[in-house]
Design a protein that fits this description.
The protein is of the alpha/beta class and 205 residues long. The chain has 5 helices and 11 strands, in the order ββαβββββαβαββαβα. 43% of the residues are buried. Bound molecules: D-malate (MLT).
Length: 205
């Protein structure tokens, strides 16, 4: 571990199929490093899995950054936690000898994955964002040419308005990312549709 990288509680599982890029698993509010391991194994069998736990606690529930209220982010904290997570990823890459990961994030984890894309372009090879929102009021000027993004949103999601996920898709596309956006007839929770679409998309790496 380098002197500067923040320590995050995490799980790491080495690859059994080294042709697959590693997956960075980012859980939702109240989750932990174990939560998305089964989903990661399912959508990218054999990939290395790097799964950190968010370091912020909201009423005892782990998150990746603070919020002021539902859907209103503490952007100063978001910037700091995004940079901490970027340093953690770089350190983990060096320690485990793994390539740039593809993120698989749900809800709060998808939001910090979107922030990682915009603040640290090139760090992630791609990102599957499940129920993500626009992370910053003012978008940092990122170039994301060559980065693939899968955005899965729910048309009846009570937390993420449809216009917000459409704006996120437009922001990422405008930055040069190759974005696939599916608006599913679902709420905030995940379904087999998410699993099937994420599995298909992951096979494209
Ligand atoms: C967030 O705070 O990141 C979003 O509102 C999603 C959530 O965690 O509920």
């Amino acid at each position: 571990m380098s002197d500067t990288a923040p320590t995050l509680v995490h799980r790491f599982e080495p690859a059994t199929d080294t042709a697959r890029p590693p997956l960075l698993l980012l859980h939702g509010t109240g989750g932990d490093e174990d939560d998305l391991i089964p989903l990661g194994r399912r959508v990218a069998p054999g990939a290395a899995l790097l799964s950190p736990r968010g370091a912020v606690l909201e009423n005892g529930m782990p998150r990746f950054f603070r919020r002021l209220s539902e859907g209103v982010f503490d952007e100063e904290d978001l910037r700091r936690r995004t940079d901490d997570l970027a340093a953690f990823i770089r350190d983990a890459q060096a320690r485990h000898g793994i390539a740039a990961p593809v993120a698989l994030g749900f809800s709060n984890g998808a939001n910090i994955a979107a922030a990682l894309l915009l603040r640290h372009p090139g760090l992630l090879r791609g990102a599957a964002l499940l129920r993500a929102m626009v992370p910053f009021q003012e978008t940092p000027p990122a170039r994301l040419d060559g980065t693939k993004v899968l955005l899965l949103s729910g048309t009846t999601d009570p937390i993420v308005p449809a216009a917000n996920s459409a704006r996120l898709a437009a922001i990422l596309q405008g930055a040069g990312a190759t974005v696939k956006h599916h608006e599913l007839p679902l709420g905030h929770g995940l379904s087999q549709m998410d699993v099937a679409l994420a599995t298909d998309w992951m096979a494209g790496f």
